[in-house]
Write a structure and sequence with these properties.
- The structure is a single chain.
- It is built from 1 helix and 16 strands.
- It is mainly beta.
- The chain has a 5-stranded antiparallel beta sheet, with no helix packed on it. Strands 2-3-4-5 form a 4-stranded antiparallel beta sheet, with no helix packed on it. Strands 10-11-12-13 form a 4-stranded antiparallel beta sheet, covered by helices on one side.
- Strand 11 and strand 12 form a beta hairpin.
- The longest helix has 22 residues.
């Protein structure tokens, strides 16, 4: 499990289970100016799979899911991507930020992905469905890094300043997945009532 954020050319490491015997293998994900991600087996220093492609600009942030099966990536093209590590299959594209995305992080249970960048927002996404769950906003916040606490109850956003310098850390009480689902259900019910009213 791990994450990386900041400038293009990041690396991040995780442990995944591969092969018929489900043997744990340490792998490294790296990215560079070619806009693709390469996965390496640390023990053999060989590429684990063909490069993951699809980004059209610099990749600034990567994070493995807690179980090591998924890899989230983000960067200059405003679109975050979620891929399956072993197959390279694209699972979701997340489109919600208006400027560069500089940080990504999974919640400890792997059900929520947080993304943040230079548009003063942090967005929480449903990993399974790819749907946007919640947007957190603070004027003036340029997000350079994200991290959930081990309990998943707190989300920390590190501020990015000029020339890669770091600033203050913003802390939010992270809503649980159950709380997010309840907010989503309430919002859908409210929208449904408005639609029924419009058609009367």
């Amino acid at each position: 499990m791990g994450s990386a954020s900041g400038s293009a050319g990041s690396t991040v490491m995780s442990t995944v289970k591969t092969g018929a015997r489900d043997v744990p293998v340490k792998i490294l994900a790296s990215t560079g100016p070619e806009y693709c991600i390469k996965l390496w087996t640390l023990a053999t220093r060989q590429e684990l799979a063909p490069p993951l492609k699809g980004h059209k600009g610099n990749i600034f942030a990567m994070a493995f899911s807690p179980d090591g099966k998924l890899l989230a990536t983000a960067g200059a093209e405003l679109t975050d991507r979620l891929c399956h590590v072993s197959s390279g299959r694209l699972l979701h594209e997340f489109k919600g930020h208006s400027t560069w995305v500089r940080a990504v992080a999974f919640s400890p249970d792997g059900r929520t992905l947080a993304t943040g960048g230079t548009d003063e927002t942090v967005i929480l996404w449903n990993v399974a469905s790819g749907q946007e769950l919640l947007t957190l906003t603070r004027p003036g916040l340029i997000v350079g890094s994200l991290m959930f606490s081990s309990s998943g109850e707190t989300l920390a956003a590190g501020e990015l300043r000029e020339y890669g310098a770091t600033g203050p850390v913003e802390l939010w009480q992270a809503p649980s997945f159950a709380e997010i689902e309840e907010l989503e259900r309430t919002r859908l019910e409210a929208n449904s009532k408005l639609l029924r009213k419009d058609f009367k």
